[in-house]
Amino acid sequence: QVQLVESGGGLAQPGGSLRLSCAASGFTFSTYAMSWARQAPGKGLEWVSGIYADGSNPYYAGSVKGRFVISRDNAKNTLYLQMNSLKPEDTALYYCAKDWPTYEGGSLFWDYRGRGTQVTVSS
After folding, report:
1. Residue 108 burial (CB < 10 Å; 0-12/13-18/19+)?
2. Separation in Å, CA 89 to CA 19, 43, 119
3. Spacing of C-alpha 5 from chain mean position
4. Lowest-confidence range among 64-68, 84-88, 106-110, 115-119?
5. What is the pLDDT of residues 16-64, one digit of tens each?
6. What string of H, E and C letters represents the secondary structure of the chain?
7. What's the mean per-residue pLDDT of the chain?
8. How far is 9 from 19, CA to CA, in rounded Å?
9. Predicted local distance difference test score (pLDDT) of residue 52
């Protein structure tokens, strides 16, 4: 049974930093790409970042490129997202997801996503 459990969210000030973690279980973590997605209030799901199984060639959405860093520790079955220079528009529920997304009915879709961790950026 695939389980993805996010942690590390919270309240941050603009310009601040947070580090999200995702503990994965129920599948061979080291053989799958992983992703971070987010959903802001009243908006659709956004693919924030992704990373290949071996940690190479990370993907970043334009809105976070240069500020967020994705990484993984395959020995610990854990995915990370270091978020720096946070902006109020980064406020969202952040999800860890298994593999790259697909597009179904014009929307992003993952077979497995965690329940999310809330990030709020406000002064």
Report:
1. middle
2. 17, 11, 10
3. 11
4. 106-110
5. 999 999 999 999 999 999 999 999 999 999 999 999 999 989 999 999 9
6. CCEEEEECCEEECCCCCEEEEEEEECCCHHHCCEEEEEECCCCCEEEEEEECCCCCCCEECCCCCCCEEEEEECCCCEEEEEECCCCHHHCEEEEEEECCCEEECCEEECCCECCCEEEEECC
7. 96
8. 7
9. 97
